[in-house]
Amino acid sequence: MRFHDIGAPGGPTDIHFTREHAATILEFVERFPDAERIVVHCTAGASRSPGVVLGLCDLRGWPTSDIERMKPFWNSLVREVMAAMRDV
Questions:
Q1: Choosing a second label site near 88 at 20 to 30 A (CA), which of 12, 25, 27, 80?
Q2: What is the 3-state composition of the chain as percent helix, strand, coil, each rounded to the nearest 5?
Q3: What is the distance in angstroms between the CA of the first residue and the CA of the last residue of the chain?
Q4: How does residue 38 score in pLDDT terms, banded at 50, 70 and 90?
Q5: How far apart are CA 49 and CA 63, in angstroms?
């Protein structure tokens, strides 16, 4: 999966994180209901992947404070799009 680490409209070649990206992630996670650990990574692990993880936590009701503290630069757009999937 590929998308840029941007939180607002940018250039014409920027790939924004979309509901389709979020749906793909959720479909993958749901294929392994008995998994005890989920590993999410990106190039730096500072913004996109923490945004995905925090969105998953929001959806599942898992605690977020430790992640928010350890990864303070998480991508808010990614988290918002992930968390909005509860309405789907």
A1: 12
A2: 50, 0, 50
A3: 21
A4: confident
A5: 16
